[in-house]
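Input/output pair, single chain:
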Amino acid sequence: MLNRQELINYRLLRGVSQNEVAKYSDISQTLVVLLEQGEKSVTEYNHREYCKGVNAAYQAKKEKLKNAPEKVEKVEKKPPLKKMVRKKSTPKNSEAEE
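Output:
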């Protein structure tokens, strides 16, 4: 059975958040935090559920990446925009007549 620090390392190694562990297991996010902080002892049940959550979340991420579109569209390189130059304003008709 893994201790609390090993549980944290196990989760981080797989790039899974505490919330994802809870989502894919039968333990709450609060319990995940308490286990990692050492405020709750790691029981056999908690350990099994924690590992189940990490593995399931990791697998879900892996599947999501696997099903992502393979072909990434290339962004067309556009020529740089020309700098806009303000033309001097011409007097309006009413001002020109005066």
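The domain at 4-66 is CATH 1.10.260.40 (434 Repressor (Amino-terminal Domain)). Residues 77 and 83 are 18 Å apart (CA to CA).
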